[in-house]
């Protein structure tokens, strides 16, 4: 239950700004869930947007594990104030809006993480952030190293067989191998410090998407190797509509919860929501509903320019390939969200589309467009953090 009497005007404005960020998340990130279904002409843009918006809203009610990770695992509880949260959101929104105009599919998750870290550092220095300890780093180092070694061997072998750059096989194999073994260990009970898990899987998301989509595409190609192109196209047109819905559901489950986590953390800090005795992160139903509604509205308005980049500029897709990209990406989103691991939807679908393209041949992927997208990922967290820190100093000066 929310005690609305403890939510003053400034806190209310901060909550509304959080919902605005959620709206932009839908406008920016959720467009990725329909990129392939539009690119393959399985659905017109308006129908795809309506479908994605509906399933994003439904997905918001699927759990709160990611909300808990974002709301309680990034910055210290002692620095969670309306000023810090507002500054963090300002930094995240600034970078998200800028990249919408540029047509670059960056991760809103990265923007939010960068904003939270930057605002917390501005308020309390290094003590404002829940940094991982050496023990936390050692916990993930072993599976990452072992997975990387196995992945390197496989990557180099595939590179030689396909006559592509060996160094590309080396780095791709290392990234995919370490990501897969880490996910395997998480499924079998490995606990990772929350900020560390968030950062790792923001980086690993495209490699997981790449691997799953490559494998999924290879399986589909083998199963339907004797089927006529006409029948295959008709079947996968309908299957792709289902996979797009599943992806949108996973996006709502994952990304709407990030806003829920920020709003709930703020409400706990001002006393409007009471922490439960069992230590669980209590997300009010009103916050879940509002977050799901705003991300759905953002999706309905859409981000057509980003849809065009994701659906047509990375590689050419037919209906079966679009189905493979969406389904493989959605699997990672949905199941990792259940373990409280926030995954970047943008990174995941980008990697999946590249994995589908790479199965055709390495030259089928527009690596120049991919490099441009990756460059935006690298600078997102520091840029959002810098803007958030500046906003905090301004807000603190005014207040």
Structure write-up:
The chain has 399 residues and is mainly α. The chain is built from 15 helices and no strands. The chain has helices at residues 9-28, 35-39, 45-59, 65-72, 82-102, 108-124, 134-162, 166-187, 194-223, 229-270, 285-301, 304-313, 319-338, 345-360, 367-398. The two termini are 29 Å apart. The mean pLDDT is 81.
Give the topology.
Elements: H1 9-28, H2 35-39, H3 45-59, H4 65-72, H5 82-102, H6 108-124, H7 134-162, H8 166-187, H9 194-223, H10 229-270, H11 285-301, H12 304-313, H13 319-338, H14 345-360, H15 367-398
Describe the structure in brief.
The protein has 399 residues and is mainly alpha-helical. It is built from 15 helices and no strands. Helices cover 76% and strands 0% of the residues.
Key features of this structure:
399 residues, mainly alpha, 15 helices, 76% helix
Number of strands: 0
Portion in beta strands: under 5%
DSSP summary: helix tally: 15
- The portion of residues assigned to helices is over 70%
N- and C-termini, Cα separation: 29 Å
Structural class determined from secondary elements: mainly alpha
